[in-house]
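I am still learning, so would you mind making up any protein sequence you like and the tokens describing how it folds?
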Amino acid sequence: MAAGLSAGALALLPLLSAAVAQHWPDMPSRSVLAAQVEQESGWREKAVLKTSREYGAGLGQFTKAYRADGGVRFDAIREMAARHPELRGWNWGNAFDPRYQLTAMVLKNCDNYRLIRWAEGEDRLAMMDAAYNSGFGSVLQRRRRCANTDGCDPGRWFGGLERTSGQSTRRQSGYGQSFADITNTHVRNVMVVRRAKYRPYFGEAGGSR
């Protein structure tokens, strides 16, 4: 059950499992959430991403983003704490708390999954991950562009929405990729590269991805 899993993952997977059981018991594939934690932070509780545009903190890399003038453009922790009573008390003073972080990841993914009603199965999960990375609005934009593109199925991520990003294709300083490529890479890493090792932990059968 523990083959290939890091010490950080083994220490925190029970906490993630408890958060899913409490807040999203019918989540269809918990291995996706575990792979997402690995992609975001490598299971490092104190992980930080800091650029001129944003500051990301913790296991789920919840961010505070800045405008060019230095003002706050959005504050993910404040927004999540305001939206979900389960997160009341979470703030930047205790931003790295793993219980808050993992609970917030479960709730944010659940919110996005329930909004993505036009897709099913693996594609719905892939779009959920894309929304976690770049926002639900970005996924909606991809869907509209796909629907207006010959041969593109808006119900599919791989071969569908992954090809119709409206995000910048210019390589971004501090990130090493364009924002379009960052989202596509995030989804592929979570759904294809990282996920399989977590399936046994959750008792999930292996799939095509």
Observations:
- Helices lie at 7-23, 30-41, 76-83, 98-115, 121-134, 136-147, 179-194, 199-202.
